[in-house]
Design goal:
By secondary structure, this protein is an alpha/beta fold. 42% of the residues lie in helices and 16% in strands. It has a single domain, classed as Divalent-metal-dependent TIM barrel enzymes (TIM Barrel, Alpha-Beta Barrel), CATH 3.20.20. Strand 3, helix 3 and strand 4 form a beta-alpha-beta unit. Helix 1 packs parallel to helix 2.
Length: 255
Amino acid sequence: MDTDRTFKIGTTSYIYPAGMAENVRKLKDRAEDIELLFLESDNLPGPGEISILKETGRAAGITYTVHLPLDLDVSDPDRAGREKAVAGMAAAVKTAVPLDPAGYILHLYNSRSVIDEKRRRAAALSLEEIISACGGDQGKIFLENQWHHPGLIEGFTSGSGPFFCLDTGHLQQQGIDVRECFCRYIERTRVIHMYSVDDEGRHAGIKSRDMELAEWVIRFAEEKKFGGILTLEVFSESDYEGSLAVLKLSAGRRR
């Protein structure tokens, strides 16, 4: 790893077809941060697995980020639905607390629906309650862009948090200018998701067609002294190793 780099490079907890703890064990010497995928609210790690993750992380000197569940919509304008979603997010946060994660990645608008005033109000109320579940530390919340322009969540961010999790793949899928978004939001960003999107719309390792953009993002992050985490958000060993090779090649070109 480049010792002059100001940011960490990490990946997800599903690179191998195995459990979370086994993935972390295999990745602990090849990643500086691991994004723990708490994607299903009814399938969170138990106390035993959390204990293993804590000890492995401590011994290896790695950090964790936690991706909160995707099966919940905290912007649901229906009161019962929103409260159920917030309760599920709070349970995920509580599960991860022993790991002292760098933060929690949240899809504030986890729906393709048009963002109207009802959804905005629901999202604002939910965000306040989720921050409370984090002990009031708004800097622990990283809001990820998904189906909409990051401008729709910009008003929820600040210089002290919540922060952005800028996802390059989602930006490209939505036809949004990646460079413009990074120039506008990098100061409020703590996590960058980087990967390519395959022909079926799935996460894939960084491909040659995206090499120029990947190099630009890394160079820009370095210029801005980005101190957060660049996560190669892929889900297989070949995609991870291929993406690391791209980053290594990029670093060589910049020297």
